[in-house]
Amino acid sequence: MAWLDTNMVSLLDGLAVGALLFMMAVGLSLIFGLMDVLNLAHGTMFLLGAYLAYQLTALHLSFVSAALISLAVGGVLGCGFSYALRPIRRRGHLDQAVLTLGIALIGAQIFSMIWGDDVYSVAAPVGTAHSMLIAGHDYPVYRLVVIGIGATFAILVYLVFQRTNLGATVRAAVADQQMVEALGVNTQRVLLGVFATGAALACFAGVIGSPILGVRAGLDDEVLLLALVVVVIGGLGSIIGVAAGAIIVGEVQSLGVVMLPKYASFLLFIVMALILVLRPGGIFGRSERRAS
What we know:
Layout: H1 2-6, H2 8-35, H3 42-58, H4 63-85, H5 93-115, E1 131-134, E2 137-140, H6 141-163, H7 165-175, H8 177-182, H9 187-213, H10 219-234, H11 239-259, H12 264-278, H13 286-291
Helix pairs in contact: 2-6, 2-9, 2-10, 2-11, 3-4, 3-5, 3-9, 3-10, 4-9, 6-7, 7-9, 10-11, 11-12
């Protein structure tokens, strides 16, 4: 109990970071795990959301408006990515990686031309900029809101993809596209929706993450790397796995800085290596889920 009390703030910070990483990584995992498409431009969507939060709030739009606009912008750009990748979707991950990496580099250059390389801060929305007492510790209300948003999205995404006809159609379209098309389902539209949803969530995560992480060039690469670690740890195509991986990464990042500051920079990759030794497919990887 003494350890829990001492590290309460760090544990909550880990959950907040995990919530952001879930919204970033779940789209990456679904796009890669279900559609077999490697999208290295996914971090660009997160950074775009962060820049939108800065720019729109600077124009005196509300934070909620910025978040809603980011969902729309992310969805539209996700559709564009899907169409751009369609000709090479069956040509292997190398071609996909080269194309999406090129898109990411172009996006980073455009952001640099518009906003420069300065570091910007975004204020927390009205009503969440204060702190509240939790187990004797002051903790920012906005970070608690982020944890709640992440948990809500995790439940919604799981229910949609695992408990609805739409989710069953998506899984069927990935497993046997020709058979589903023979039943009269437009599989291209279904897969387009998955891509748009993943990009919209990444852009939205950039908005709600901006008051915590700030807005700066290079943030896209940092978040993309962490999202890839989340997907590897949790297992491709598994929503529960992404949630578990995001919490693990968030807690390791947060507690590592406090408890093992000298080793914090590579502690996460040690944890990832240990998990992969025990479960090569990730905690909830395909092999594990099929076996169950």
